Amino acid sequence: MRHEQSSNNHKHSSHPETKPEALLPIEEQGSVEDAGEPQGGADAGLRAEVERLQGERGQMVDRLARLQAEFDNYRKREAKERTEYRDYALANTVEQFLPVLDNFHLALRAQGSAEQLRSGVDLIVRQMEEIVRSLGVQPIPTVSTQFDPRLHEAIEMVERDDVPDHQILEEVRRGYTLRDRLLRPAMVRVATNPKQKTA
């Protein structure tokens, strides 16, 4: 009796109690374990997030396209306005010189002496200087002033001991400034005084 009871106990200990899940194939076991976490909810949330990001991307692309179009329009408008302003300023300047051109034509057709022609040209020059002055253009002072390399261009140095060293003796070509901006330097002849150099 003891032997049979021991044998029965051995049979039970060699086959421990198994759960019903352990009797299923491995693939089906996994499906049973995950049965409490529905996959449909996670997929729906992921799809919603993707759709939201795609919508934001589309909005950003549209906004970028609008900004690019607005910038192109601004650039074209600014270039057009700049051209129109330049043309307006140029037309205004040219309009002021047209009477001078008319007077030159009249002088060329005039039948008079050389002195009369010279007098007429002198009047035209004064008229032109007045127009230039009204535009903010000023002649650079030269004769009897000290040479200034920022405003004058010396084409000749003349030795003189009766005038200060580096004094301008003669203006060869007039120079001009426009509101403190140099348009062109004046060409001049400048004195060099050896007595002052050795003193």
| Number of helices, counting only DSSP H or I runs of 4 residues or more | 5
The biggest beta sheet, please? 3 strands, antiparallel
Average of per-residue pLDDT values: 83
Distance between the termini: 150 Å
Helix amount: 55-70%
Q: CATH H level of the largest domain: which superfamily?
A: GrpE nucleotide exchange factor, coiled-coil domain
Which stretches are low in confidence, meaning pLDDT under 50 for 5 or more residues running? 1-18, 20-24, 26-37
| Portion in strands | 15-25%
Rg from C-alpha positions?
A: 51 Å
CATH class of the largest domain: Alpha Beta
Oligomer: single chain
Structure summary, number of beta strands? 6
Strand and helix order: HHHHEEEEEEH
Name given to the CATH architecture of the largest domain: Alpha-Beta Complex
Strand arrangement in the largest pleated sheet: 1-4-5
Structural class: alpha+beta
Number of domain modules: 2
Globular, elongated, flat, extended or rod-shaped: what is the shape?
Answer: elongated
